Every structure is written in structure tokens, then in C-alpha cells.
Here is the input.
Amino acid sequence: MKTLPLLLLPLAAMAAEPAAPAVRLEPVDRDPAWRLSIGFRAAPGIKTSAAVDARAAATAAGAVLRPSGGSSSGKAEVLGTTTEGTTAAEAQKEAGWSEGKTRWDFDNGFIDMNDGAGADGEGIVGETQNWHFDSAEDFVDGAIQARTPFSRTTTTRTRRSAGTSVREEWGEDLRVSSDETACGFELRLDRTVWENADFGLDVGVGYAWYDDVDAFSVRGRAYDATAASVSAGETVTTTEESGTVVTSLAQPEFEEPADYTNSDGSMGGAVEDPFVVSDGTTEPIPILTVSKDRFSSSVEKTESRTTTKTTGGGGRSSSRTTRRTVDVRSEGTLSLQELRFGARPFWKAAPWLAVRADLGLLATYSEIETTTRLSVDGAPAAAIRRDDDDWTLGGYAGASLDLAATDSLTLSVGAEARFPHKSIRFDDGVVSGKADLAEWSAFAALGWRF
Here is the structure.
């Protein structure tokens, strides 16, 4: 046993006759001078806290379906992209000003720079009577609002190889705490080194052994995951975009609606073919001025819709589903042993009663053994065992009562405080925590003088 050699060192020193005191106090001869005590000691208030690292538990068990969690998918290969229709930018360009352009066709009307007017039958540059819009209400805030609709459909075909969808849950409340009492037996050997009629002084050594303390027990599910493999398939993604380009053509010359509004509510010369004018056209035919600085355009009422359809290769149906669970059970046992060396001054309150003070040095050997068992899908997978031990040196101070049953036999009871407060930490890679050792203890013992 690790502690017994240490116990023998102070015994050798105590076996010698005590040295004469510096001041003569005429000590009373004590015979017998030795006392051997054996008894019970309890140390309450051993507080332990422990927690399980769920991710470390799953890793130690080798059961993580995918270390990074989440979902994985195979490589995506774009098979092709097709586009039909007109984009907003293309429509805006077509409906706007362009040098050398002589005709604009809109959804609600047209402008044609060839009207057959002018000297020698040629049109006047920048002006035309060959224009028409369906409604005079399209003249807003001094400008004609010409509308050009557009729409575009883009289709992309993609093939994706088989992948895996993973759902993972990790244990979060795998922790416990406890408050236990260590109980054991104590063996002490004391020698009276000085005594007079009322007072005396003993010195001695002691050894205490405590029964193992069940420091903690934690169990639960550390990991629960489901992985679904996905078969390969072809995905067709269709994006539809539509809207309207509004082209504003400023005409500040149009002041009175009657000057440009036809009898049918439309406006413009309505000259579909040069020199042919529709019935009901305002006379004289209003002249439209067309130049770069009078054009402006914007896009409104844009809508976009995307649809996805998977075909071929069995679609995205799951071909296999795997579930994985990791359960953990971890227990800790605390073992304690103590060595002490101290002085016990006493006062003889009565021939059968002595009051003792008790103080000295206390060396505590603590060992905590952890056993962690991991199971995967209910079957044992791994076991981790580890011992963490330590020696701590401190002090103690207390008091006790000695009741003399006979000249040789005494009964002692007492308590002591321990200082400073000590802790021991443990960590086996999955479970970790600490145990705070007792701050005080109490004892009861039988002593025999010889």
C-alpha cells in the first residue's frame, strides 16, 4: 500500500524519549505514555460534477455518419441551357431611341417617320404625321406612354449524381452532480510528551482509509442520426420572366386634348399607309416630334417564376435509409486515504474527562476512476477506463472529548476543519469534471493505553 511507508517515518521519531523541556514544569510521570486508537471517521460534503461531451462520445464510438454533419450531394453536371423570348434589356433597347431608326412598334401604337409629307415628297427630319396610339389616355404629364411587353423563358437541364441527406441530433443534457459522504476507519498512535496535574500534550500520527465513494453516474443518448441516400436524376429548371417596358416620348407642344384626340378616343394621324388617313382623325393631323432627347424608358410590372422538375434516373427517391444511435454510460468512483501528523494539547476537566485540541498536517491521497461505456445501435462498441490521482497537502484543526472507561481504555469523539479546500479533476476524453473534497470530518474511536 502506498501510504504505509510514510506512516513509519514519524513513528520512529516518536519512539525516542521526549527531550527535556526548556522550562521546568515538573511533569507528572505518565505510565503508560502510548495510546493506540482505532475508530470510525466520516467526511461529508464531497461534491462531484461531471459532463459528457456528446460529439467526443460519437467520435470515440466511430459512429458519426458524416463528421461535418448536414447533407452531402453528388456532383452536379449541367447538360444544357436554352432561352426563348426577349429579355427586359432587349425590349428596352428595341423600344428606345436609335440613330437612323424610322419606325417603332409598341403594344398600344406605332410611330413611323415616313409620312409622305414635306417638299418634293420627302419627310421632314424629326417630325411625322404617321403615328397612332389606341387611347388619348396614354398621353400623361406631357408625354406619350408607349408600352412594349416582353417575356423570356430559360430552361436548364442538370444531372446530379447520388448523394446523402443527413439529419443529426446531439445529446445536450448529459451532466450530473452529487453530494456524498466518505466513511472509513482510522488508526492513530499517540504519545504523551508532557503532562502536569491539569494539562498535557500528545503528539501522534494517524492513517485513515475510506470506502469507495460513488462519485457520479451519467447515462443517456449522445448521438441520433438518420442518413438517406438519394439516387441520381435529371432536373429541369424553368425560369420565366415577363414585364413591360414603358417608353415616354415628350410632346410639350400638345397643350389641348382636342388638338390630338380623335373622335374614337385614339390619338395620332392614323396614317397606316402614306396619304391614307382614317376617318375621324383630327384635322389638321397633329405633328409628332421625334428626337433622342425626347425618349426615356423604364421597366415595370416585372414578374419572375421558377419551377423545378426532376425526371429520369428514378428521380430523387431514397434508395436506402440508415439510422445510427450512440448511447453513453459513465460512472466514477472516488477512493481516499489520509496521513496525518499533529499535536493534541489537552486539559483534564475531570479524572474521567479530557478536552483536547487537535491540529497538524494532513496529506490526502485521492484517486478517481472513471469507466465510460459506449454502445452503437444498442450493441457494445467501446469502453474507456482512466484513473486520475493526486496527493494534496493541507492542515486540520479541531477538538475532541476523551472519556476514560478504565485506566487503559478511552472513548473519543470529535470533529475537525480541513484547509485549504482541495479539488481533483478528471477527464477521459468523453466525460470530464471535478470532485471537491470534504471541508470537515468527524470521528469516534476507542483508545488503549500501553
Remarks:
- The chain has three helices and 23 strands.
- The longest strand covers residues 318-350.
- The helical segments are 4-15, 54-60, 88-95.
